[in-house]
Design a protein that fits this description.
The protein is of the alpha+beta class. Helices cover 31% and strands 23% of the residues. Strands 3-2-1-13-12-11-10-9-8 form a nine-stranded antiparallel beta sheet, sandwiched between helices. Strands 17-16-15-14-22-21-20-19-18 form a nine-stranded antiparallel beta sheet. Strands 4-7 form a two-stranded antiparallel ribbon. The longest helix has 18 residues. The protein is globular. This is CubicO group peptidase, beta-lactamase class C family.
Length: 472
C-alpha cells in the first residue's frame, strides 16, 4: 500500500480529471461527478457538466445522486452488524422475523440467500413499471403481497438471481429486529458515525436533497435530445435502491470496508466480500457477487463495489480493500458511462500507484514532456503515471488498451518493442515551443499538435465553412 504522503507525487490529478471530461464529452452525458480516495486522502474530487439540462445548472461536487443499488451495500452491512451483535443470524429464514411470511415459500429463504441473491426470489414483481414512472414503488403491504402471491420463481440456491424484492424484505427485517424504521437505524448506526453527511436512505431523509441532480433519459438514435426524469420515492424498496449520496461520500463509505477497518468483524467483512456466485453468460463479462458486494479484478487488484441504475441515473464504485483505493463515478443519465469511467479511472490510478514514486528531479524531467496532442486521427496524451511516462488515447473506454509505457533514455523517448501494427521500437519526438512547453509530438512519423492549438484551428475552419453556408 502506498503511504498517503506520496500519493500526490504519483498521480497527475489534472490528467485524471481531463480523462474523465473526455469520456463524458464523447458520451454526450449531461453530468459526471467523481472522486478518488487513497487510504484516508481524498486525492481527487470533481464534477463535469450540468445537474439539469433544462436549467443549465452547473454540476457540483456537493450535488446528490440516486445511487440506487449501492443501497444494497448499506443494507448488507446493516444486517451483518446486527449479526455481529448477536441480534440475528445470517442463516435465519425471513419468517423468523417477518410474521407475514410465516409458512410461505419466500418465508423459508434465509437472510444469507437474500443477501447473495440466491434465494430464487422474483426480481421486481409482476408489475415493475415503477422503474419507468408508471406508478409508485411498492410500499410494505404491496411488497409482502408481491412475495407471498408469486414471489419465488426458482429454487433456493439454484442460480444467482438478482432480487430487489428480497432486499426490500431485508429492510423490513432490520426494522423488526431494531424496532425502529430502516432509515432511522441506518442513519444512527452507519451514516452518522461515519460522517456521511450527504448520504441518506431516501432522497428527502437528509443528505442534502435540495442539491439533488435531475436524471435524464438516454440519447435519441438520430439526435442528442434527452428528457428530464422526475424524482420518485422508493417506498419499501429503499433498502434495495433508495439511497442518495455523492461520489466523495461513497469513497468514504467503501474505505470503511477496507482491510483493518472496524465497521465489521474481520471474518464478517471477508464473508460479505468473498465470491458467493460467479455469473458467466455468453458474450458478457464474467461477474462475481458476494453478500451485497460485487467483485472484479482491475489491473491485478481484486476490487469490491457495486453499481446503481435508477430512472435517469447510473453510478459505479470500485474499491481495493487491501490497497485502500476507492473510485466512485456518478452520472445523471440512464445511459451514462459510469462503469466504464470508474473502471478506467481505477486502472489509471492503480497503474500510477504500482509504478512507484519518482524523485522530484525525475518527476520534473518527465512532466516537461507531458500534455495532450491532437491530429486528424484523434487525441494522444503523454502522461506520467507514477515514475513512468505513458502514451494514451483518452477516447478509449479502457485507457490502457493500446497504450504504451515509453522507454526513457535521457532525452530520447521510444515506444517499447513488441509485435504490433503501430510503430513499436520507434522514437517519440517531443517538439518544444517558444514557451518551453511541448508544442507537438511525432509518433511513427505522424505529427500531433498541442490540443488547444489544434482545436482553435478546427473551430476556425468550421466557422469559415458555416460562413459560406455549409451545414457542418
Amino acid at each position: 500500500m502506498t503511504s498517503p504522503h506520496t500519493v500526490r507525487d504519483l498521480l497527475d490529478v489534472d490528467h485524471l480529471a481531463a480523462w474523465v471530461a473526455t469520456q463524458a464529452g464523447f458520451a454526450r452525458v449531461p453530468g459526471v461527478q467523481y472522486a478518488v480516495r487513497v487510504a484516508d486522502d481524498l486525492v481527487l474530487e470533481g464534477a463535469w457538466g450540468v445537474a439539469d439540462i433544462t436549467t443549465g445548472e452547473p454540476l457540483g461536487t456537493d450535488h446528490v445522486f440516486r445511487v440506487a443499488s449501492h443501497s444494497k451495500t448499506f443494507t448488507a452491512t446493516a444486517v451483518a452488524r446486527l449479526a455481529d451483535r448477536g441480534e440475528l443470524r445470517l442463516d435465519d429464514p425471513f419468517e423468523i422475523h417477518l410474521a407475514e411470511l410465516a409458512g410461505t415459500v419466500v418465508g423459508r429463504v434465509t437472510l444469507r440467500e437474500a443477501l447473495g441473491h440466491t434465494g430464487g426470489v422474483r426480481r421486481d414483481g409482476t408489475d415493475a413499471d415503477f422503474w419507468q414512472l408508471g406508478g409508485p414503488f411498492p410500499g410494505r403491504d404491496a411488497l409482502v403481497k408481491a412475495v407471498t402471491t408469486d414471489g419465488l420463481v426458482l429454487g433456493r440456491g439454484e442460480v444467482f438471481k438478482y432480487s430487489n424484492l428480497a432486499y426490500g424484505l431485508l429492510g423490513l427485517v432490520v426494522e423488526a429486529v431494531t424496532g425502529v424504521p430502516f432509515a432511522q437505524h441506518v442513519l444512527s448506526d452507519l451514516l452518522g458515525p461515519l460522517g456521511l453527511e450527504r448520504t441518506a436512505p431516501e432522497l428527502d431523509d437528509g443528505g442534502g436533497g435540495a442539491r439533488a441532480v435531475v436524471g435524464h433519459s438516454a440519447l435519441g438514435v438520430a439526435d442528442d435530445g434527452r428528457l428530464p426524469v422526475a424524482p420518485v420515492r422508493t417506498g419499501a424498496l429503499a433498502a434495495a435502491t433508495g439511497f442518495c449520496s455523492t461520489a466523495s461520500d461513497l469513497t468514504r463509505w467503501f474505505a470503511a470496508h477496507a482491510d483493518g477497518s472496524d465497521l465489521l468483524r474481520p471474518e464478517t467483512r471477508r464473508l460479505l466480500q468473498r465470491d458467493e456466485s460467479v455469473i458467466d453468460r455468453p458474450h458478457a463479462r464474467v461477474r462475481r457477487y458476494g453478500l451485497g458486494f460485487e467483485t472484479r479484478e482491475i489491473e491485478g487488484r481484486r476490487v469490491v463495489g457495486h453499481g446503481g441504475a435508477f430512472p435517469g441515473q447510473l453510478s459505479r464504485t470500485w474499491a481495493d480493500p487491501a490497497g485502500r483505493v476507492v473510485v466512485s463515478v456518478l452520472t445523471n443519465a440512464i445511459d451514462g458511462p459510469a462503469d466504464t469511467i470508474a473502471t478506467g479511472l481505477f486502472a489509471l490510478v492503480a497503474t500510477a500507484l504500482d509504478a512507484g514514486a519518482p524523485t522530484p528531479e525525475e518527476a520534473a524531467a518527465l512532466d516537461r514532456r507531458t500534455g495532450r496532442f491532437a491530429s486528424l486521427w484523434g487525441l494522444t496524451d503523454v502522461v506520467r503515471l507514477g515514475s513512468r511516462l505513458w502514451l494514451i488515447d483518452p477516447r478509449r473506454e479502457d485507457p490502457l488498451a493500446g497504450a504504451a509505457c515509453l522507454d526513457v533514455d535521457g532525452d530520447v523517448l521510444r515506444l517499447p518493442v513488441h509485435d504490433g501494427f503501430g510503430a513499436p521500437g520507434e522514437p517519440v519526438e517531443v517538439l518544444t515551443g517558444d514557451d518551453g512547453r511541448p508544442a507537438a509530438i511525432v509518433v511513427g512519423g505522424l505529427t500531433s499538435w498541442r490540443a488547444e492549438d489544434y482545436e482553435r484551428e478546427r473551430r476556425a475552419q468550421l466557422a469559415a465553412l458555416r460562413a459560406r453556408g455549409t451545414s457542418v
